[in-house]
Amino acid sequence: MANYAPFIGLRYSFSRKRNRFTAIISLVSMLGMVLGVASLITVLSVMNGFAGELRGRILSLVPHGYIAAPEGMTDWRSVGDAVLDSPGIEAYSPYISEKVILASGRSLRGAVLTAIDPEFESQVSRAPDAMIEGQLDALADGGFNVVLGASLARMLSLRVGDTVEVTVPRLTVTPLGVFPRTKRLTVVGLFEVGAQPDTFQAYIGLTAGQKLLGPRGAVEGLQLKTSDLVTAPQTIAALASQLPAEYELRDWSQTQGSLFRAVKMEKVMVSLLLLSVVAVAAFNIVSTLVMSVAEKRRDIAVLRTMGARAGGVMAIFVAHGLGLALVGITTGAVIGVLLASNISEITLFMENLIGVKLFDPSVYFISELPSVLMPGDVLMVTLASLALSLLATLYPAWRAARVAPAEVLRYE
């Protein structure tokens, strides 16, 4: 009986001879732990899924890095070929980008018009694969054609073959005065990635873009693709030291980083909020153990007279509390893993059951809940729950260790 403390503690946790009210409080504590752990694992997995969807969809059109020349880049081919010799750089594409106003009938929308070479663009982004109507190669003929995001086209009531008027922030001087530069473009294609670029992005051919946006015969810079998206910031930073000072280099974490930092912060805040559910369940164990100590004062006194030390008594009630917590945490973790692994099927079942589409693709850009279960999240939730449970057992166990045997057994 050298290890009597865990043995007696677990007997107290699962004995059928407990006081009924104490047993109910214990059950509520375990159910709260199950709910908190399962919810936390499921929500973290869904947040991981949303972050992955967001990263994959937005970065399918956003290059890993940029080389910008404020004065324009005329020798962009030689610069691009030189950049390809740098480690980690796989492809480049010239671009000119400008914020414009698109008009169709009475509809006006702000947009980002990017002049590209379709042949090079296909090497740095997945824009050709995102086409739902027409082909990106239609921009290569040098005509004033445009490819629009599907949501942007819907807002302007445009379809392939229609024309749209674009106004750029450049001035044209004529004998009649100074006018903003405008041009009619023919819609030759639509793309859709299921993210925000669908609502503002438009593409034009490089030759037409140089005529419309300027500068003629030059580009604004180069878009870059690296061998690894995760290490792209380090690759672009290493490339910056090899290029002349007049070039400005940026990576996707600088152009899109605020969005992903916001998603990460949201995940942290949601985790803390849901962890409070686990904390409440853990500290319900305090009331369970306090009542258990009051109920077991006679047993404690007998153990002390038989030679049990205060530390042994304290270990009994720590084991008592952790026994309850472990059942709740284990059950919650199993349920959470099952929910996170099958959340899409569960969502589809609920939609079919109630006859309502929970996630309208036209509103949320997704048709089902994405979920990515990460073992690190499960381990973090489990350890945090155990730590809170251990903290919750310390005070009642300390009170049990201070029970005086003489006071309890005086009238026995």
Please give a structural write-up.
The model has no long low-confidence stretch (mean pLDDT 82). This protein has 2 domains: 4-57 and 260-409, no CATH class; 63-252, no CATH class. The chain has 16 helices and 10 strands. Helix 2 (20-58) crosses helix 12 (310-341). With 412 residues, it is α+β, with helices and mostly antiparallel strands.
Strand content: 15-25%
Overall mean confidence score, pLDDT: 82
Number of domains: 2
Helix content: 40-55%
Query: How many beta-strand segments?
Result: 10
**Main sheet: strands, sense, barrel:** 6 strands, mixed, barrel
Which word captures the global form? Answer: elongated
Low-confidence parts = none
- Class per helix and strand makeup: alpha+beta
Query: With helices defined by DSSP (H or I, 4 residues minimum), what is the helix count?
Result: 16
The helix/strand series, from N terminus to C terminus, equals HHEHEEHEEHEEHEHEHEHHHHHHHH
* Strand line-up in the sheet with most strands: 2-3-8-5-7-6
- Separation, N- and C-terminal Cα atoms: 26 Å
Specify Rg, calculated over alpha carbons: 32 Å
Domain ABC3 transporter permease C-terminal: 273-404
Keywords: Cell membrane, Lipoprotein, Membrane, Transmembrane, Transmembrane helix, Transport
Membrane topology: Multi-pass membrane protein
Subcellular location: Cell membrane
Give a brief rundown of this model.
Keywords: Cell membrane, Lipoprotein, Membrane, Transmembrane, Transmembrane helix, Transport. This protein is of the alpha+beta class and 412 residues long.
